[in-house]
Write a structure and sequence with these properties.
38% helix, 6-stranded mixed beta sheet, single chain, 391 residues, 8-stranded mixed beta sheet
Length: 391
């Protein structure tokens, strides 16, 4: 039997960041994770960080490598009709930039900090179940090393992702969900080749969306829109590179360096939100509460904003004896979540080929893009959302 102040389910970036922010305020938190640490670090995810996310990581004391290795981007590129247009993030937002630093590296830094502090994380915690979170004394049961264990706590933070146990532990009648599943996915390829461009390129093409991203000056991450039912086995490296080159503008296509794939996978796209985010002493954060299509680079950043609100509320409770932050957590977080959902939906709708929109819909997409790159007001709206709205 164990006891802690806050039990955190999930050792992804949301759970680890929350644990680290609490730890630095003297608040004890134990993390339960059903996978091994190696499995968590093996997840290939995005890595475009808003300034607010960088500030949170700095507050957590885990920004040393991020500052040394992260790539600062002051712009982002939109490609359509075979031409590329740059959106000046710095000029349109009063100096704000995004930082390219892989989610795997964020996770590694947070794991290392937690281990250095001697904080408890139970990896390979199986059969996790949540109990009595609608009362004053919640607890969790789990199995580790073949033995059943009990963890008593004051609050539970569900940071265990879309397929975790936290949200399904809540009665369906207590929450409302909103969802849109998109009719396509992203085929992603990771390779040790230099990026085709120093900044990201988002491509709207007649045959589907493409994205040119990177993890470092020597490692690139590329994506192609593909049917939702597509199989990764159907895509050789050669086929992927040929299709990517075909969707790029001529200049970028001529500079594309190819190489063997380190990883190749297909990710489905969906928009999802559940309301509310608080159920007694259980709080949902990150992908357990919402999913965004990756087009707007909001997934990790939205999880970080949840952690911002939740960590503030818990620190206020334990350090100041006030429950005001906990009472307001759900409404505060959801107000920002829905704005990010809107932006991600808008970017997805503008950049992808939708099978049902027809010729009229394609012309509307083109008009939207042409207006966006010719209007400072429209470009500013994109830039403000891309670098992240204020907390």
């Amino acid at each position: 039997m164990e006891r802690t102040q806050v039990a955190i389910i999930g050792a992804g970036p949301a759970g680890l960041l929350l644990g680290q922010l609490l730890l630095r305020q003297g608040i004890d938190a134990v993390i339960l994770e059903r996978h091994t640490a190696a499995h968590v670090l093996g997840r290939i995810r995005a890595g475009v960080l808003e300034p607010g996310t960088v500030e949170l990581i700095t507050r957590a004391g885990c920004d040393r490598r991020l500052r040394a290795e992260g790539l600062l981007h002051g712009g982002v590129n939109l490609c359509f009709g075979g031409e590329r247009h740059r959106i000046d993030l710095v000029g349109l937002t009063g100096g704000k930039q995004v930082t390219v630093y892989g989610q795997t590296e964020v996770t590694r830094d947070l794991m290392d900090a937690r281990a250095a502090a001697g904080a408890v994380t139970h990896y390979e915690a199986e059969e996790v179940s949540l109990h009595d979170f609608d009362g004053p004394r919640p607890f969790l049961r789990f199995v580790r090393d073949g033995a059943e264990r009990t963890l008593h706590c004051e609050f539970i933070a569900g940071c265990d992702g879309f397929h975790g146990i936290s949200r399904p532990s809540v009665p369906e009648s207590a929450m409302e969900t909103f969802e849109r599943v998109y009719p396509f996915g992203w085929l992603g390829l990771l390779a040790d080749v230099p990026p085709v461009n120093e900044e990201l390129i988002y491509v709207n093409h007649e045959d589907g969306f493409a994205l040119c991203s990177m993890r470092s000056p020597t490692r690139s991450r590329y994506y192609l829109q593909c049917p939702a039912e597509e199989r990764v086995e159907n895509w050789s490296d050669e086929r992927f590179w040929d299709e990517l080159r075909r969707r790029l503008d001529p200049e970028a296509a001529s500079r594309l360096t190819t190489g063997p794939a380190l990883e190749k996978s297909i990710a489905p796209l969906r928009s999802f939100v559940t309301e509310p985010l608080r159920f007694g002493r259980l709080f949902l954060a990150g992908d357990a509460a919402h999913i965004v299509p990756p087009t707007g680079a909001k997934g990790l950043n939205l999880a970080a904003s949840d952690v911002h609100y939740l960590s503030e509320a818990l620190i206020e409770h334990f350090c100041d004896g006030s429950s005001a932050g906990l009472e307001a957590y759900s409404s505060r977080a959801l107000a920002r979540i829905w704005k990010a959902e809107r932006f991600s939906w808008w970017m997805t709708s503008m950049m992808h080929r939708f099978p049902e929109v027809g010729r009229f819909g394609r012309r509307i997409q083109r008009a939207e893009l042409e207006y966006l790159v010719s209007s400072r007001a429209a470009a500013t709206a994109l830039a403000e959302n891309y670098v992240g709205l204020p907390y």
